Every structure is written in structure tokens, then in C-alpha cells.
User: Which sequence fits this backbone?
């Protein structure tokens, strides 16, 4: 195809511009601080340009084979022999994801591109941590625990170098409760003939499912401090760091189901169980109508507060009223174990004089040290109540009327006046007695309405507080707090402080949710509890109860005589 004379200069200009465009592109070089490198050790990739490139860099292609730990940019200008030199650098601190010969891809800086580069990544063979400067060791107290039994997971960090900016992952295990124990310990130790500084950390793990479980390796990422060559005649030295990542080994737990000896008992695995009671006064000399406080305490080593059973049972003898207080629950992470504590106070009031026998309290538990079932027990207690001292004052003896002095009177006039006076006073007495009775009924009715109104207001106020507490516990998915709120509600509504007996008084939906909560707390069930369903069932139960109460109460009569 022939171009006209007019089009030829334009074609030549475009062709020349196309040839010259690479000459104006920024030259972006790439280099690494060392090559080869080891797997799980960081190194630096530096991109350098003598002039500002077309746009900002896009480093996303690097993330295919490398993890970017840090990124920075620096710029400098030098003038040598009246000639100005500009240098722009982008420095990436990265860590290879795989071993082998890896390619550092070309990076786009707008329309400009960097060069390609390659680096060799060696896979370090771990041989019992021989002569390693930095390594992790992990171990467990028992690789074949029973379900819900405490397992002590110990981590040790050995190092011969100084580190900074250290970040350590936490142990992860599905279907398990994990609690950190105490504070970290630092000490010096020898390992395979070398001196190390050791940092030790412990965790308590409570597996909630009987199956093989794998504790994933822990990973430590830290900057290892490396002293550089001294400068300025050796007086100053610069401190450099390199990022290093190390991992521990994985550990598998073969979690066992409950042993056959505990099939019919409440399941409570622990190292030690301590149960005691205290009384506020002598139970052999109680007085009828006066309260005495019984304090029950349960301390367990090797368990969390969620595993603590209720101590009070609604099985008091007849004519003895029991008023249990809110229990106190605590747990403490000691250096070598979890300690759980529960305290309950019950006020007992005998109604009649006599001797009463309180049933024994038994807490069956599995001794994880001896591998046997044991029972923590408080024996039967005998209370003796006597009638209180009668301090009432005896009525004074009757004294006969004084004998009047005889007076001579006309008997006929006396009879007539006496008969008339008795008739008048009789009807006056009837009138005033009726008026007094009407007035008394009016004031009694008025005072009763006021007291009922005040009591109703107090009941509604307390019920609102309980509802708020229960709602907050359910929304936060806290089974222990939800249980305490339900027990407080059950005391007010049904005079019951046992979840199972409270559930029996509720609608089927709420009954199902309360029993499910009870299973989560004490039945060894392993799924994570969600409180939304219980709160929904509770609201529906309240609506049904309110409706039934309203329908059962007819309108009061216009004139009501009590």
C-alpha cells in the first residue's frame, strides 16, 4: 500500500516515536540481600530505579510464592561533579512459602516493569534441634486422657540469640476448652551440650469429645538480632535484624470415653476434690422459727467452674424451710493446674420443735491420678430444735368490785328508770358498733389495696431485673450466667432452685431449652451453646403465663367486702 506525500511524514513520526518509547521507560532493577536462603528465614528484595516510574508498584504477584512481612520505600539524591543522581528504592522483607528455585516475577510500576530474578530456597532438615540457635519444644502430660480430663500442654522456647518483635501463635484444638496457666517462666538450661535461655509456658486443655484430636503446631515469628560490622573506627556499630520463623511439632490426643465404672454417675474428672460444710451456730440447740446458716464449699483441682455440680438439693425434712442464697463460683489458673471453687449458703428454719436428719451430700468423681471412682461426702447431720422461751406477761388476777354502801331508794322508780335506760343504751350500742364495723372494713380494704399495689410493683420491678440479666446472659452465650439467672427466676416463680424442677413448671419449648442447657453444663455434651433459642422460648413462656393469669382473674365486683 502506497502512502501519499501528505501522510508519509506522519507515519515516519509515529514509527520513530514507537521506537524511542522504551528509551524513556524507567529502568527498575531487582536484587536480593543473599542467595541462596533457607526456608522459614526472611530475606530482602530491593527494587531500584534512577527516576520516578510511571506509577505505584503492584506487589501482589510476589505473594504467590512469598509472604510479605514488611514493605518500605526510600529515596536519595547525590550530586557528584555537578551531576545529580537520583535513586528510588522499594524494599520488601519476605519469606518463601516453598523450597526450590523460585522466580521473583516482574512487577508493574504503572506502564513500567521491573526485571525478573530467581532465588534458591533450601529446605532445612530438622535433626533433633542439634546446634539450632532458636527452636520450640512441646509436650503434654497425657496423650490418652478421658473426656473433660485436664491435659497440661507445655511449650518451651530455646534460644541462643537475642530476638525482638516475637509473635507466638496459641494452641488450637477443636472441641476443647483451653486455658493459659500462670505466668511465663524464664531460666537457663543446657541442651545437647549447649547453653540456652528457655522461656516456658503452660496451658490446660479440656477435650470435650471422645475421639482422636490433633493439636496443631505452634509458630514463632521473631526478628533475630545480628550485629553488623563496626563503623567509625569501631566506636559505633549498627544493629541489624533478620526475621525467622520456627514451628513446633503437632501432638495427637487419643481422647477416651467415660470408663464403665462411671457410666451411671455424674462425670467429674479431677486430680483432687475437697468438700466441707460450716454452720453459723450449734445445730444441736436450734430454736424454732430462728434461722441458721449452712455453708457448703467445694474445691476441685483440675477442672473449670463450668464442671462444678450443685451442692444444695431440695430434699430437706418436713417442717424445715430452706432458703438457698446465690452460689459463688470462681476459677483460678495456677502454675500447674486449674482450680475451681463453688460456695453455697443455705438458711434453714425449723417450724416445729423436734429432731431432724439432713440427708448426706455425695459428689462422685473420677480420680485422674489413681484412675478410680471416688466419692466426696458430707455425712448425715442431725438437728435439734426446741421451742423458744415464752416471755409474755401473765394477765393480772381478777379483782371483785367493791361493795357499795346501801342507799334507801324507791324500788318502783328504780325499776322503771333501769328498764328505759337499758333499752336506749342497747340501740345506741348497736348503732355505734355498726358504724365502727363499716369504718374498720373501709380502712382495712384501703390498706390492703395499697399493700397489694406496692407488693405487685416490687415483684414486677424484680422480675424486670431478672429478665434483663437472663437476656444479657443468653445474648452473650454464657451458660453459667444463664443458669444463675434461671435459678433466681425459678425461686421467684416456683420456689425452686434446681434447673430440672424449674423446667418441669415451664412450657414444652422452654423446658427443652433448659434441659439442653443443663446437659451442656453437667452432662458432658460438647457442642458450643447458643442462648438465642432459650431466650426466645423464655419470652414465649412469659407471654403465655401472662395471658393465662389475665384470663383467670375476673373483674372485681363494684362493692367488695373482705
Assistant:
Amino acid at each position: 500500500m502506497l502512502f501519499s506525500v501528505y501522510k508519509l511524514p506522519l507515519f515516519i513520526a509515529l514509527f520513530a516515536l514507537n521506537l524511542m518509547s522504551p528509551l524513556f521507560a524507567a529502568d527498575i532493577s531487582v536484587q536480593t540481600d543473599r542467595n541462596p536462603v533457607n526456608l522459614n528465614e526472611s530475606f530482602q528484595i530491593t527494587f531500584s530505579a534512577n527516576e520516578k516510574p510511571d506509577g505505584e508498584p503492584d506487589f501482589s504477584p510476589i505473594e504467590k510464592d512469598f509472604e510479605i512481612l514488611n514493605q518500605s520505600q526510600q529515596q536519595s539524591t547525590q550530586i557528584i561533579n555537578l551531576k545529580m543522581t537520583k535513586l528510588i528504592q522499594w524494599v520488601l522483607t519476605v519469606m518463601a512459602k516453598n523450597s526450590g528455585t523460585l522466580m521473583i516475577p516482574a512487577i508493574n510500576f504503572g506502564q513500567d516493569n521491573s526485571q525478573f530474578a530467581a532465588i534458591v530456597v533450601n529446605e532445612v532438615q530438622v535433626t533433633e534441634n542439634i546446634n539450632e540457635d532458636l527452636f520450640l519444644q512441646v509436650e503434654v502430660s497425657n496423650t490418652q486422657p478421658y473426656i473433660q480430663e485436664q491435659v497440661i500442654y507445655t511449650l518451651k522456647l530455646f534460644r541462643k540469640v537475642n530476638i525482638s518483635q516475637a509473635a507466638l501463635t496459641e494452641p488450637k484444638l477443636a472441641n476443647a476448652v483451653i486455658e493459659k496457666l500462670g505466668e511465663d517462666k524464664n531460666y537457663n538450661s543446657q541442651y545437647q551440650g549447649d547453653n540456652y535461655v528457655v522461656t516456658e509456658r503452660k496451658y490446660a486443655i479440656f477435650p470435650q469429645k471422645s475421639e482422636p484430636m490433633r493439636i496443631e503446631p505452634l509458630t514463632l515469628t521473631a526478628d533475630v538480632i545480628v550485629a553488623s560490622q563496626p563503623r567509625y573506627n569501631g566506636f559505633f556499630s549498627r544493629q541489624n535484624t533478620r526475621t525467622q520463623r520456627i514451628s513446633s511439632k503437632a501432638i495427637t490426643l487419643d481422647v477416651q470415653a467415660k470408663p464403665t465404672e462411671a457410666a451411671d454417675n455424674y462425670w467429674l474428672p479431677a486430680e483432687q476434690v475437697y468438700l466441707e460444710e460450716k454452720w453459723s451456730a450449734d445445730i444441736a440447740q436450734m430454736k424454732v422459727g430462728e434461722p441458721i446458716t449452712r455453708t457448703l464449699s467445694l474445691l476441685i483441682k483440675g477442672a473449670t467452674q463450668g464442671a462444678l455440680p450443685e451442692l444444695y438439693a431440695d430434699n430437706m425434712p418436713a417442717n424445715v424451710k430452706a432458703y438457698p442464697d446465690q452460689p459463688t463460683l470462681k476459677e483460678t489458673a495456677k502454675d500447674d493446674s486449674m482450680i475451681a471453687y463453688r460456695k453455697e449458703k443455705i438458711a434453714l428454719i425449723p417450724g416445729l420443735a423436734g429432731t431432724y436428719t439432713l440427708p448426706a451430700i455425695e459428689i462422685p468423681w473420677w480420680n485422674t491420678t489413681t484412675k478410680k471412682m471416688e466419692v466426696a461426702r458430707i455425712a448425715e447431720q442431725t438437728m435439734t430444735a426446741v421451742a423458744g422461751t415464752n416471755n409474755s406477761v401473765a394477765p393480772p388476777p381478777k379483782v371483785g368490785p367493791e361493795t357499795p354502801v346501801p342507799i334507801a331508794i324507791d324500788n318502783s322508780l328504780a325499776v322503771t328508770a333501769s328498764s328505759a335506760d337499758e333499752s336506749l343504751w342497747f340501740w345506741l350500742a348497736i348503732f355505734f358498733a355498726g358504724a365502727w364495723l363499716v369504718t374498720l372494713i373501709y380502712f382495712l380494704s384501703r390498706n390492703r389495696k395499697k399493700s397489694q399495689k406496692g407488693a405487685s410493683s416490687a415483684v414486677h420491678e424484680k422480675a424486670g431485673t431478672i429478665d434483663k440479666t437472663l437476656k444479657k446472659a443468653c445474648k452473650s452465650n454464657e451458660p453459667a450466667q444463664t443458669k444463675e439467672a434461671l435459678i433466681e427466676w425459678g425461686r421467684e416463680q416456683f420456689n425452686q432452685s434446681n434447673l430440672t424442677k424449674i423446667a418441669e413448671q415451664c412450657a414444652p419449648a422452654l423446658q427443652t431449652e433448659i434441659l439442653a442447657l443443663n446437659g451442656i453444663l453437667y452432662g458432658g455434651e460438647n457442642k458450643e451453646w447458643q442462648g438465642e433459642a432459650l431466650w426466645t422460648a423464655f419470652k414465649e413462656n412469659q407471654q403465655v403465663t401472662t395471658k393465662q393469669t389475665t384470663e383467670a382473674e375476673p373483674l372485681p365486683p363494684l362493692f367488695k367486702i373482705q
In short: Residues 134-254 form a domain with the Immunoglobulin-like fold (CATH 2.60.40). The longest strand covers residues 176-191.
